[in-house]
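Collaborator request, handled under Task 6.
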Amino acid sequence: GGSCCFVYLTTTALAAQWGAPTTTTTTTTATTTTTATATATATTTTATARASASAAGCHHPPQLRLPFSPYSPYSLSSTSPPRSRAALFSQRPATRGCLAYSSTRLVGTETAAAAAMATGGGGTGMCSSGGQKQKPLWREELERSIEKEKGKPASRFMTLATVKAGEPRARTVVFRGFMDDDDGGDVKLDGVLKIITDVRSEKMQEIKDNPKAEIMWYFLDTREQYRIRGTLDVITDKDSSEARQKWRSQQWEEISPGMKQSYEWPSPGQARTEENDDDKKDYLDPKPSVDVSPNFALIMMVPERVDVLKLRESPQKRHVHSKNGDGWTVQRINA
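Structure tokens returned to the collaborator:
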């Protein structure tokens, strides 16, 4: 449906493309034979890949895709790898077995992938390795961005935008993790981001009036931007679900004593007057609540569309990931 179809080439093709250097003269004959064999293997593999793509209705030529950067195309005509061979084959071993990439995600081995694409399968936007369902591509990319800037507090800060009476409202919030990490990998919670807030804050009414929101998350070092659009789901002390209250309690236990203390402060956003302008009494004296504060709320951002922009790529790459049932589809667009 307008999305590009890609095919991951096998390790054989990689070895054929970037085999051992041929710089010695004493092994010229052997090297020439090996190179010819490797070239033939690469050509055969490429032809197979093109045939698989054609059977799936793909109109873009298959390109070499590496697990550590699914967006960066390196064609078989390249004369040198983008990085060392050791680095190529050591990157993300958990996903190395995903050898095919359709418009919607990686699936199984090359043969299984061709069959899946030809029959319309593999459209869940998930990577299947040994029958195990994996994370959406955008989340793998996001987790790599987080890992690259690990140790820098600013990398956990996101801008959350909501709407109030038709006007935008934005504020900085802290990423608290993914919901399915705390709930045994429940597919219904896959990719759901966690944020916390005070139930007395203005954003609570904004979310009640219109739960649609967008997160903008930029990573300075990697120059990557993620715009995550979706629906906000809030869990307060009034929620009757035992499971949801468990999630809220778990998040409360994970925050620092200083953060817990902030939920005993005066209502955010209210004006300070001479009569109530006692910072020590209001901000320093209150003790953190042992139990979950009634002012504490867990916000879940349920993503529906993720726009990923990679400014460091040349040319810049931009892909839009869209929720489709239990899976995701991805489409490259102009940056």
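The cover message to the collaborator said: "The CA atoms of residues 292 and 307 lie 35 Å apart. The longest strand covers residues 296-310. Please let us know whether this matches your experimental observations."
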